[in-house]
Structure formats: C-alpha cells, structure tokens
Design a protein that fits this description.
The chain is of the alpha/beta class and about 270 residues long. The chain is about 20% helix and about 30% strand.
Length: about 270
C-alpha cells in the first residue's frame, strides 16, 4: 500500500499496492468496424487488463440499441477475458437518443451507464437530437471506484464534483478531442486519476496530483497501456504530524510517504 501526505519530497515507493491495468484505444470516430475493434480488444485483453476504454461514440452517429451487435460483442469479450470495458455509443433507449458511456463488467453484464450531461451544440442538431443526461454515477468495481464523463463535460465542474462526492478513484473520459489542462485541473482538485480515449488518436493519463503521467498519440490507432496504483492518496498534515510519523514507523513495510508538498502547508 502507498499513501501520500503533504510534505517535502521523499523516496518513491517501487511496489504497487492496489494495481489496475488500463488499456486505452483511441481512433477516429467511425474509422474502424466492429470486427476490427473486437480483434484489437481480444488481443489486448488476452495480454491482461482490468479496464479497457474506447473513444466517444466510436461507432458513428447512428444510435445503437443496448441489445444490438456492438454492446453484445463487447460484453462477450469482457466475459471471456474477465475484464471491464467502457463502450461509448449514441444509445437509443426506445424513446430518445443519448450519448452514453456503458461500463461492462467482468461477467459481461452492464454494470453502470453514464449519459452525457452536457452535449455539444451540434449534437442537438442530430436526428434524432441528443438528450441531456441527469446523473453521474460511480461504480464500485472489484479494483476500485470508477466514474465516467464525456467530452464537453470537461468544461462543467458540476459533473466532476458529483463524481468526487461519490468517491471516484479513477475517472474515464471518452472524448472527441484532447482537452489537456482542463483535465489536469479536475484531477488535482479532486485527487482522482483520469484516463482518456479520444477520436483525435491520443491518450492522456493524469495522476491524483494533477501530473500528466502518460501522453501518447498515433494517427491511425493509438493503444496506450498503464498500471495505476489506487492505494495512493493525498492527505492534509496540519495537526497530524505525530500521527503521520507513528503510521510510517509502525507500518514501514506497507506505507510510504512519496512526496511532501511543503509550500502547500502552513509549515513551509
């Protein structure tokens, strides 16, 4: 286990306490068939991962049904390879179209679904137009608490606050563009990791400290792999120095101070 408290930089921990292996696939919307992406998912899942992420509305503008070929195929791959998959699509729920990110669990079941709260202006001009989502759920996966946000949501702090209020540890952000520093702000404000999958062919990963720890891009198909340690945390140390020192002394084998952010405390 690795925990982080405010203070002067210390030795980094080399062991990972609660690892989650993430694979992000980034490619242009509509540029890959279901068969092509299923083959990539199969290959990556065979290599071992806990969470795989695809980009926003990757199948194109035609709404998909939950029991249609896309969700069905990815659910079978998730079940067969015992992994979670985030499949973002335009979803037809029988009455309206929503821009949805669907979290499929290791048993191939839909575990959680997020409907984009802030569609982009042009999405209201689609036929049928995209409707507004009204919640931002967080799912307790077997490796940690997972939240989702989509593309234009990056500009609205309410979505990210809602995820933080529910204890999200890692937030998946499928998108049509890269965003960048806006994501950094949400990561550092709420101390959760953020993983992106975009139709611009890039993947960025932000640490709980706001540091960008991965930034990869490929014009055709970008495959990014990273292992996150969800046992890390950030804590305020005012009036807690003695408790910190006792914890580090008594649990030296499994707890380590990674950084001490002295200028953020009143002790600098």
């Amino acid at each position: 286990m690795r925990k982080t408290s405010h203070g002067q930089e210390a030795t980094s921990l080399t062991a990972i306490g609660r690892p989650v292996r993430v694979v992000s696939l980034s490619f242009r919307i509509g540029s890959k068939s279901l068969a092509e992406i299923a083959a990539v998912v199969e290959q990556e899942a065979t290599g071992g991962c806990d969470l795989m992420v695809l980009p926003e509305t990757w199948t194109g503008p035609v709404p998909e049904h939950m029991d249609g070929p896309v969700v069905t195929a990815l659910a079978e791959l998730a079940r067969r390879h015992h992994t979670y998959i985030v499949c973002p699509i335009y979803r037809w729920d029988g009455a309206q179209c929503l821009n949805s990110a669907i979290l499929i669990d290791r048993q191939g079941e839909v575990a959680c679904m997020y409907d984009k709260a802030y569609p982009y202006w042009s999405e209201f001009e689609l036929k049928p137009p995209v409707q507004i989502g009204c919640d931002a759920p967080v799912h307790a996966a077997d490796f940690g608490r997972v939240g989702m946000a989509i593309c234009f949501d990056v500009n609205f702090p309410q979505v990210w606050q809602r995820l933080a209020d529910q204890g999200a540890e890692v937030v998946v952000w499928p998108s049509a563009y890269s965003a960048g520093l806006s994501l950094q702000a949400h990561a550092i404000n709420h101390h959760f990791a953020i993983v992106t999958a975009t139709s611009t062919g890039d993947c960025q990963v932000y640490d709980i400290t706001g540091e960008r720890i991965l930034d990869e891009q490929h014009e055709d198909l970008n495959i990014s792999r990273i292992t996150l340690d969800l046992d890390r945390g950030i804590y305020h140390e005012n009036f807690n120095i003695e408790k910190r020192d006792r914890l580090l002394r008594e649990r030296a084998d499994d707890v380590m101070q990674e950084q001490w952010l002295a200028r953020e405390s009143g002790l600098s």
